[in-house]
Each structure stands twice: as structure tokens, then as C-alpha cells.
Amino acid sequence: MTDQIQDSAILGAFELGFPWQTFDPFLFCVHHDDAYPAGTPTLGPPKETLKGRNIGMDFELREGWRMYHGDVVPGFPRHPHRGFETVTLARHGYIDHSDSTGAKARFGHGDCQWMTAGKGVVHSEMFPLLDQDGDNRGELFQIWLNLPAEDKMVEPYFTMLWSEGIPRPQVAEGVELEVVAGPLPERVEVPAGTPKAPPAPPPNSWAARPEAEVAIWTIRMEPGSRWTLPAASPGLNRTLYFFLGESVALGGQLLDRHAGVRLRSDQSVELEASSEGRVELLMLQGRPIGEPVAHHGPFVMNTQAELRQAFIDYRSTGFGGWPWAEDGPVHGPTPGRFAVHSDGREETHEAAE
Predict the structure, then answer these.
(1) Which of 11, 7, 6, 30 has the alpha carbon at shortest distance from 282?
(2) 181 touches 173 (CB < 8 A)
(3) CB neighbour class for 216 (10 Å; exposed up to 12, middle 13-18, buried from 19)
(4) For residue 273, what are the contacts with CB-CB under 8 A and spacing of at least 6?
(5) Residue 69 known to bind ligand
(6) Which end of the chain is less crowded, N or C, counting CB atoms within 10 A of the terminal residue's CB?
């Protein structure tokens, strides 16, 4: 149980809510997992399944899925951000991104989009249901990473961390580590032809500073498997989120319900998966920025005065306007993955399954 964990490497445990509790430099983390039905030609669920939902504000898990702020296609139509970064790790399904700089992308099935909002950006994230013959599972982590005061007003920027470039080494028998950010643990053998380090985060990210030691890992453990999470430097905030599986032992202490666990960053801890099924955990780690946080809605600044200015700026400039005909654009029925950046640079990848 979460109130029974006692180990020198463990600082405490807490229940997983919606969103999950996070710690500096992280601001927000939510795990979306929706079992969407077969899609329609409009790339949304059948109209009859929308009856009784609070369309435009549907966060109720009914029949295994939600529409969020979408009305035809599930997702999050245009909304602004300033002063932090969004890290969107798409585990299943596709996400269609569009933003006020003119950039757009379709990504999914293990891809990650890392966006620096900086001085202000408007974007949409829609979840098109591309399979009209079968179910459309949508699963993602949405993580907010703070920016220090000196970088809060940088130019907006996004980068794609395509699935093929994200290392997923086997760190022990039955244990796979997915490294979205941060170096791989020492003495981990990476098979030939696979990435030996994750793609770089955006240049102004707190994660781009080696001394920040930001790490975003997922850990997949087969039944009964074991692995020792290695120590890092002292003074980091390190949190493990146990979100899938029956139970997991940390340092010999049983955790039998989904929860977050704060760890001492300079101590290793042994993880042991339940013999009853696969276990998955997310780890967020980073050196605290240690600055005041003024947060309201989509803006994260250091002072209330800066927050008020953010709202004034958004009302007067729209952070560059909205170049799209719809509030929640989707990018057609073809499942290929791509990105078109604001400078015109294009990336294309095959559809992922």
C-alpha cells in the first residue's frame, strides 16, 4: 500500500489523480487512454455515440473514451500557451498538431512532440480516428516542463522525436527502457542499428542543459522481472509513476495500487514486477529550476504581473494569429506521419502500427 512504503531511497508515495502530481521542473502530467470506436469519414466517432455527452467539455470516461474539447473529432482545438514546454508522448493512435506559426504535424505510435511555447504560441491537438474498420485506441502522456525566467520569452519552437530515433534498450531480462530524454544508464548494451541516445530536445529547453539532468523514461517490465534503477546526482527531483499492472515492489516494499513514488535521486532502488502481469512505469527526473511559479490556465510565468501581461498580449496579438480554417484541423485520412515546420522544413515517415 502507498502508506506502507519505507525505504531509504523512497521519500514518499501518493495516489494518482487527474492530472498526476509533479515536482519542479515539471508542472503537469496527465495520462490519456481512450478506447475509441471505429472512425467515420469525418475521422470522429459515430454521431449516435455523442448523445448525452457534454460536447466541448467532455472529460467523462463513457464507453471507455472521451471527446475532450472536440465536437466532431476528439482532442484539444486551438488554445494558447506561454512560458513553458509541452512534451507529448503518443503511445497509441495518432495526433494532429497545428499551430500559430503555420507548422503542422501528424505523429503517433511511439513518437514524441516537444514544443517550446516560449513567448507565446497557439496550437491544437486533435485525435483523428483513422481506422474505419476497427477500434482506434488513443494513449498519450502530456507533460509540461517549466522554463527558467531567462527563457520564458524565447521564440516558439517544436521538434519531433520520431519513434525510430528513441532508444528502447533491454536493460535486464524482461525489462525494456524507453528513453525520451536523458542519457542511457551506464553499461547498457544497445543493439547495433538502434539509437544510442535520444534525439536532442529543443535548444532552449531546461532539458538541453546537461547539469539539469532531465530524464523522461518509461519502464516496461514483464511478469516477475527485476531491474535496479541506477542512482543519479543528488539534488534532483525524481518520481516514478506506477500506472499499469497489478503490483510492483520498490526496494522490497510492495506497491499494490497505482501511485506515484518520490525517490532520492542519488540512491539506486530495485524494481520487481508482479508475477501476475506486465508492469509499466513512467519516470520524470530533473534538477529543480527553483524559481517562483505563477500559473493560471495555459500560461506559466514567474509573477502575477507577468501573468496579467500574458493575457493582455494574447488578447491583443493572438500570439501571431491562427492561419487555419478550423479551430481543430485534421490532416486527412492517410495515416502517414509527417511534420511541416514554420521554416518550411518537412519530415515524412511511414505509418506506424
Answers:
(1) 30
(2) no
(3) buried
(4) 174, 221, 222, 223, 224, 225, 226, 245, 248, 279
(5) no
(6) C
* pLDDT value at residue 353: 62
Q: Is 79 annotated as a binding residue?
A: yes
Residue 31 in marked binding region: no
Low-confidence ranges of the chain (pLDDT < 70): 1-7, 353
Angstrom distances, CA of residue 4 to CA of 244, 253, 275: 20, 8, 21
Q: What is the pLDDT of residue 1?
A: 40
Cα–Cα–Cα angle for 63, 259, 219, nearest 5°? 90
- In tens, the pLDDT along 41-86 reads 999 999 999 999 999 999 999 999 999 999 999 999 999 999 999 9
Number of Cβ atoms within 10 Å of the Cβ of 133: 6
pLDDT of residue 192: 82
CA distance 287 to 285: 7
* Assigned CATH topology for domain 26-46+56-162+292-326: Jelly Rolls (2.60.120)
Dmax (CA) of the chain: 57
What's the rounded Cα separation, in Å, for the pair 221 and 258?
Answer: 15
81: annotated binding-site residue?
A: yes
d(CA 302, CA 200): 26
Per-residue pLDDT, 190: 81
C-alpha cell at 99: 499551430
Q: Let me know if domain 10-20+167-198+214-291 sits in CATH 2.60.120.10.
A: yes
Q: What is the pLDDT of residue 188?
A: 85
Specify the pairing of strand 112-116 against strand 84-92: antiparallel
Three-class DSSP category at 309: helix
